[in-house]
Amino acid sequence: MASVVESVRKSSNSALAGSQSKGKIKRPTCEATDGSTGDIRVCRRSTRASKPPTFFKVLHETRVDRETRAAIKRSKVESCQLKVNYASFVEIPTVFATAEEFKDPVKFWNKYAHLGETYGAVKVVPPSDWHSMCPLDTDRLKFKVREQELRNLCNGKGFSHPSYEWSCDLMKEADRQLLVEQFGSENPSVEEVENKYWRIVKEGNSTLVVKYGADLNVYSPEFDKYLVDMTGIPFEKDLWNLKNFPNAPGSLLRYMDGIIPGVNSPWLYIGMCLTSFCWHTEDNYFGAVNYHHWGAPKVWYVVPPGKASRVESVLKNYLASESEEFAVYSLRVQVAPDVLVANGIPVYRTIQREGEFVFAWPRAFHSGFNVGYNCNEACNMAPVSWLPMGYRSLVKYKFNRKTCVSFFTMVMSGVCNYRDFGAEDLSHMIQSLSLLLSQEFDLRSSVNYPLLQMYLHLNTGGSFDIRSFMDGVSASGFNSDAFMNAVTSLCSKNDNDFLKACMVLSSSPMKDCELCDTPTFASCLTCPHCNCTVCISCQSYHPCECSSRIVLYRYPLLAFLRLIKILQRQYLALVSLMLYFMVKPSQTGARWVCKPQFTIPTTTVLSDVDSRSLFRVDRLRNTPEATTPTSRCGDRIKWLNSRDPQPKRATWLNLESLSTTDDILSSTSSTDSPISSATDWNPEWFADMRSAVFCSLDRTKPSPVEDESIFGEIELGEPCSLSANIFANASDTRGLATVTKFTLRYLMLALEEDSKESL
Questions:
Q1: Does the chain have fewer CB atoms within 10 Å around its N or its C terminus?
Q2: CATH architecture of 88-397
Q3: Tens digits of residue pLDDT in 630-640
Q4: Delimiting residues of CATH 2.60.120.650 domain(s) in the chain
């Protein structure tokens, strides 16, 4: 069993001490050091109102210019500032890991989650026989630096990014000179550096500029030539190698297709004395893992997740002259920890040294600085227990910032690999899926616009080559066949094929809502006349006032219900197995009652909403010339034919209707459904798509502004009818062309958005 050290430093003149109150998390308090009684004074606004003079009329007396309002807000925050001894802050727990615990990073994380949630972070000391390696050869490494002007960190304006490159030798020498200049010694104490750092940040009267080699994308082509060859070395495949850490069993990040630097691929940091990382939470409220390779210590300040909203409020008021988004999400605003403490926010501290990990919990605000020349490596962590906090990030980011990866894409990645997880993890997934289904049902039920399922008809003959078109549009290559195989496999009776289809679609290009920046994971609203794509909840703000709006969706509602049933079946099987072997819940952490917190509509109700769609892939039928179905589908065909009095000859539904979740027949045809002759397709139907590509290749036109597409405004021409008549018959190529063009435009814009965000 690991030894957990929860060090609480106390002294007679301590500036901070832990206090325990009934039903509350232990928090530090402060004593004033200015000769007062030591009680925390709460700055309270006077309740007395000032009456304006009566001899003249006051116009707009309640209006105050923006700068004045910002100054007032900041003064209210700073007036609570106390002088404290930073070294007396309560330390976060230190866990001395055993060799057995170190075998599984995610289990280790979950084991100490109660400490992480209470303190915001945990310091981890690896077993004595464990050894790491820095992934880059720092003797040869060249990198660009981030200049930090300390006096402007509190204003969010202390950062610049010069174009020149530095080396570790230059960084080491600059650090040595700075230490001698500022401290008269090459080896000052942590407390000396700490006090100096916060004095400069708070007083703002120093012109000191330091350089930080931050956010170095270790496994990018830029640093390929500096990578250390670990072939054959045990550390190469060690799960605690931060290259492998996000891919550990139990981590949702292991299922991501792409690489997101700093999230599922580590960043390296080469620091010098007084370089900072400002107050922030991780992207999507992921957990953070930071390892100290070598060099001087790094000092951390951490706020527990439960107090994150309070930190956001302080940051917004402290930097009221800027937008709230900048204050909270820019990673450029440094506020002294005593300001937070004086405003009733508990702050914990730790000193990270060589060979130590720091785990920061989801939505735990943290900041700090480097005591001297050092090297750290960091990545993110997303166990399934992160899902509730991940959803909170989705809500918080709405209208404020973009997500680095769609929350529901993360959910789907775990769901589609549900066999890798235990009962408690499945419980989290069921709750998240139930939330998604409940929200989508409400949204789709609330609109009267036509519903169209995403679809690309690839068999257009020579009129328009969709495969080549999408290959040209996508810089990384878009696999049209894989996309359509996934769309059609949503109707497969085989659970494995169905799950694979859900996974492929969840990782397919996804456009963000142009108003609130939320990823349009399940559905979106658009129209033929402009590129604007919004989520259904933002439908009122779509700029086009036409009557031709449509809802384009990725998954039928019944697909989500089927996923929930698959998870519930597995959950019950695992619980039954545990009961059979008399396993106690405390031994597994499983919650054996898995009742969704959100109301799940019945199959019939969901089917009614799905059936409103003008176009659904499961309704596609072959032409009468198509081959007849196999006998095992006879009953299904009779039912289908009874619904359509037009054909006199039995026709085969290429993809069976997903009207129930337990009677779904697998597709027996390719993605090129022979529902129409290629000669029926008019090449002029796709002139709008060709024009968009020509627009993107036109070098004579001015470069598009930030919010403009390189394709220009793609106004969909004929056929773009939303008449129910053209969708009533699957052999009507006008309907297929319409839904194909809507889907093409969505994918084109989503791919463009992805390429811009990756720059």
A1: C
A2: Sandwich (2.60)
A3: 333 333 323 33
A4: 88-397
